[in-house]
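Section 5.1 Outputs to date
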Amino acid sequence: MNLRIFDKTEDLLHSAERTIVQQISAGARTIALSGGSTPKPLYEALGKQQFPDVTWVIVDERYVPIDDPQSNAGMIEKALKPQRLLRFKTELNDPQKTADEFEREWRALQIDRLDLVLLGMGDDGHTASLFPGTDVLTVEDRIAAAVFVPKVNMWRVTLTKPVLREAKLRMVLAAGAGKKPVLAEVRAGADYPISAVTRDTETWWFVDRAAVS
């Protein structure tokens, strides 16, 4: 595991920002972003810069309107102010149609595979909307998929496991003591969704001191 440990979350986010900028300078043009509170300051920092050649892609989305506080795309649009964003159109009011339209736009943009994907990790080992025990973990022939997640009693739409695995590089951000137990299990080889996405692939883990034993 390529593990980078930082004393403070702020240091973690500054390093992640530098890494993303370096990847863009090296030619990265398709970058997928996850939601959540941890990366929001990172997106605000990136939003102060201009990346006109980059297509930003939403990793996953809760099935809520874009102006809902829970919307990943809504948060990212406000923080990053991207010039080109591929998001899940929840306004279609049909999770499967939303996944289908996302795939249509992906192909129209001629995306082969992602250059970089930024992931988070839940305290249950989920990443994107790939939750333990959900059928979406077995999907191998789609770019995006709709999934009902009983744990949160909500429909979600998400990039699939093979798309995340086929990206050239994965960065996982994990901050806070709440992540310590699952991170320790992942490091020991436990079979969580985040493990299925990152195992035997080039993945850089950015974690703060509170998240590691």
